[in-house]
Specification:
Length: about 90
């Protein structure tokens, strides 16, 4: 709906409503400054980001990571489908 400005990847309205599943495994990031870190190459829990409809504002930011078991089912956990031009 383009309610806000796009993010660095040109996507709009990416925060809030549901926690978003990520492909990243939960775990620590590498030492030092990194851009778009992905976490470890394997693990037991996945990352969810962005906060859900029942959470306070500090949790509703993409930088906030929450670890979630891949088998969990929750009403405020989902994902966004996004695609871009072919490369």
């Amino acid at each position: 709906m383009k309610g806000k400005s796009p993010n660095d990847w040109g996507l709009y309205d990416m925060i809030g409503n549901v926690w978003e599943w990520c492909a990243d495994w939960a775990g620590g990031y590498p030492e030092g400054g990194v851009t778009d870190p992905t976490g470890p190459v394997s693990g037991s829990d996945r990352v969810a980001r962005g906060g859900g409809w029942g959470h306070d504002a500090p949790y509703c930011r993409s930088a906030f990571r929450y670890k979630v078991s891949p088998g969990i089912r929750a009403g405020n956990l989902g994902f966004r489908v996004a695609f871009g031009p072919e490369r």
